[in-house]
Design brief:
The protein is an alpha+beta fold and about 170 residues long. It is rod-shaped, with a radius of gyration of 31 Å. The protein contains 1 helix and 9 strands, in the order αβββββββββ. It has a 5-stranded antiparallel sheet with strand order 1-3-4-5-6, covered by helices on one side. A 4-stranded antiparallel sheet has the order 2-7-8-9, with helices on one face.
């Protein structure tokens, strides 16, 4: 009878175990790297969206601030729409008329027929600028509706677009 002696090594890993652990580690690291890239891309898009909303709010507030000091709307005519908003201010006669319009995908302001000043960031594209001037009801005061679309690209190249609108009521 022959005796078989099986020797076992203590304290080591077999080649199969090492390959298995390396494969599991590679899968785990791949998942972590993929998740990290997703978080970074999402953060970049969030920053771009925040910049777009800040820009839209800024442009609306510029127009509304001007309208709050207006005493006469020249363009658009009553119950009319236009891509130009022109009005006269009460206490700033040297600035009259104030004009907001679209030029080369930007919102521009012109005071007293002078040089146009671009109001928005160069990374922003403005489109669909519409002003509607009305006094359709005897119970509501005269108002101007403002609407425009802003778009930009995220760092990843994705186009982000948002529509902004506001109604400004004049004091009676």
């Amino acid at each position: 009878m022959s005796a078989k002696i099986i020797q076992r090594r203590n304290g080591g890993f077999t080649l199969l175990e090492v390959i298995l652990y390396i494969a599991l580690l590679a899968i785990l690291l791949g998942s972590v790297v993929t998740a990290s890239f997703e978080v970074i891309a999402s953060s970049s898009q969030s920053k771009t969206e925040a910049m777009l909303f800040t820009e839209g709010d800024f442009l609306l507030s510029k127009i509304q601030r001007g309208l709050s000091m207006a005493n006469t709307v020249n363009i658009p005519s009553l119950d009319g729409t236009s891509t130009i908003l022109s009005f006269n201010m009460q206490n700033q006669l040297s600035y009259n008329p104030i004009t907001f319009s679209q030029s080369n995908n930007s919102l521009v302001i012109r005071k007293s027929g002078g040089v146009s000043e671009v109001l928005n960031n160069s990374n922003i594209v403005l489109s669909n600028l519409i002003f509607f001037h009305s006094n359709t009801s005897k119970t509501k005061p005269e108002f101007v509706d403002i609407s425009f679309t802003l778009s930009t690209r995220s760092e990843a190249g994705k186009v982000i677009t948002e529509v902004f609108s506001l109604t400004h009521y004049f004091n009676q």
